[in-house]
């Protein structure tokens, strides 16, 4: 590799790094790439996703231009108030529902443009889905092992291998002892772990779980969440989990908050070890900047400052300040005036 892909005019490439024309050309090319390749390489890419439910003359805009990128291998939590559009998003990603407008790609599948046949193949092979209602995930008259076998009945894998896969999954998720029991002989947590094993049967790239612990007590919820973590770390499946449980969202690296049908903020966590080797958790909250340059400021930040309608912006070298428009409230936080600038 000689770096020949960087083409500059006239100077034989001698000082291509300092040539202003080359710099501008590069920036232009980069901007063009950014325009055409939104979400390239991401496992999930939602681009201004809209879902409108219309009926009885009432229109509900469940998703209002939602943008979301999730990389392969991530375990991500989705949080948000009831009615914010979380299930609508999950159903679209699961191939159970189609968006009204916008683009959505999962593992290279264009979900807005799939035929019925492609949709079926997608639902069987690319995604696994877990409902909140434990009873909805499993067939009541089959044992746990038979439930895990079910999704594989159309696969071209030999039966012996399918049988081994089902047993292995139950073992990895810590429920090998439940193999011969029907759902009614299982606890709520065991049922959800069996549901996870069933959803993983066809080796999906993506596991979607919509409030999988919503009906469980907190100890059982931890156990089920542990199974999702196992799927992510040991089987390499990308996991997206909707949850109300702070104990769950506190344990994932990335939490995405949805408000009014849009991604509004996200929190990234990482553990850092101090000099004694004790791990401390750091969490940083980010606002989502959409491609039109819009951000949504969290209510708990704008309300104490009395911000509404419009705010003043002040760009500095390394950050942008946001100030209340009205003098008085929050005036101590007003941006430096021109006079202050001259003083310093
Ligand atoms: N099938 C439907 N028909 C009409 N409105 C719906 C339907 N499903 C959801 N909605 C509405 O869309 C909005 C988002 O719902 P949903 O995605 O279920 O939110 P969440 O899962 O975050 O609680 C709500 O206002 C809800 O009432
Ligand atoms: Mg929901």
Features:
344 residues, alpha/beta, 2 domains, seven-stranded mixed sheet, disordered N terminus, binds adenosine-5'-diphosphate, binds magnesium ion
Word description of this protein:
This protein is of the alpha/beta class. It has two domains: 42-287, 3-Layer(aba) Sandwich (Rossmann fold), CATH 3.40.50.300; 299-343, no CATH class. It contains eleven helices and 13 strands. The strands form three sheets. The protein has a seven-stranded mixed beta sheet with strand order 6-7-8-3-9-10-11, sandwiched between helices. Strands 2-1-4-5 form a four-stranded antiparallel beta sheet, with helices on one face. A two-stranded antiparallel ribbon has the order 12-13. A hairpin with a 5-residue loop joins strand 10 and strand 11. The protein is globular, with a radius of gyration of 25 Å. The termini are far apart. Residues 1-18 and 338-344 have low confidence and may be disordered. The protein binds adenosine-5'-diphosphate and magnesium ion. Residues 53, 60, 62, 80, 82-88 line the site of adenosine-5'-diphosphate.
Overall mean pLDDT stands at: 85
Which ligands does the model contain, each kind named once?
A: adenosine-5'-diphosphate, magnesium ion
Q: How are strands sequenced across the largest beta sheet?
A: 6-7-8-3-9-10-11
Q: Structural class from helices and strands?
A: alpha/beta
| CATH-derived architecture of the largest domain | 3-Layer(aba) Sandwich
């Amino acid at each position: 590799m000689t770096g020949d892909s960087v083409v500059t005019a006239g100077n034989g490439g001698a000082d291509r790094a300092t040539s202003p024309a080359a710099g501008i050309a590069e920036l232009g090319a980069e901007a063009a790439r950014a325009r055409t390749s939104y979400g390239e390489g991401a496992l999930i890419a939602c681009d201004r996703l809209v879902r409108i439910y219309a009926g009885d003359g009432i229109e509900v805009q469940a998703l209002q231009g939602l943008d979301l990128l999730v990389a392969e291998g991530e375990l991500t939590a989705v949080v948000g108030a009831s009615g914010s559009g979380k299930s609508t998003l999950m159903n679209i990603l699961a191939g159970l529902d189609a968006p009204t407008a916008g683009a959505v790609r999962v593992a290279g599948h264009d979900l807005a443009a799939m035929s019925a046949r492609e949709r079926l193949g997608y639902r069987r092979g690319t995604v696994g889905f877990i409902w909140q209602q434990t009873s909805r995930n499993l067939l009541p008259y089959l044992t746990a092992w038979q439930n895990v076998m079910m999704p594989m009945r159309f696969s071209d894998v030999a039966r012996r291998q399918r049988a081994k896969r089902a047993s292995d999954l139950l073992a990895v998720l810590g429920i090998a002892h439940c193999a011969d029991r029907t759902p009614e002989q299982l606890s709520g947590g065991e049922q959800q772990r069996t549901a996870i094993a069933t959803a993983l049967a066809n080796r999906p790239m993506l596991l979607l779980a919509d409030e999988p612990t919503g009906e469980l007590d907190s100890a059982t919820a931890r156990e089920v969440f542990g199974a999702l973590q196992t799927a992510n770390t040991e089987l390499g499946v990308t996991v997206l989990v909707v949850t109300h449980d702070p104990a769950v969202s506190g344990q994932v690296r990335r939490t995405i908050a949805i408000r009014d049908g849009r991604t509004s903020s996200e929190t990234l966590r990482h553990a850092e070890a101090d000099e004694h080797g004790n791990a401390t958790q750091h969490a940083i909250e980010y606002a989502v900047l959409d491609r039109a340059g819009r951000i949504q400021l969290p209510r708990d930040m704008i309300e104490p400052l009395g911000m509404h309608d419009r705010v003043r912006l002040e760009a500095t070298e390394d950050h942008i300040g946001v100030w209340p428009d009205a003098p008085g409230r929050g005036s101590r936080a007003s941006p430096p005036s021109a006079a202050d600038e001259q003083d310093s």
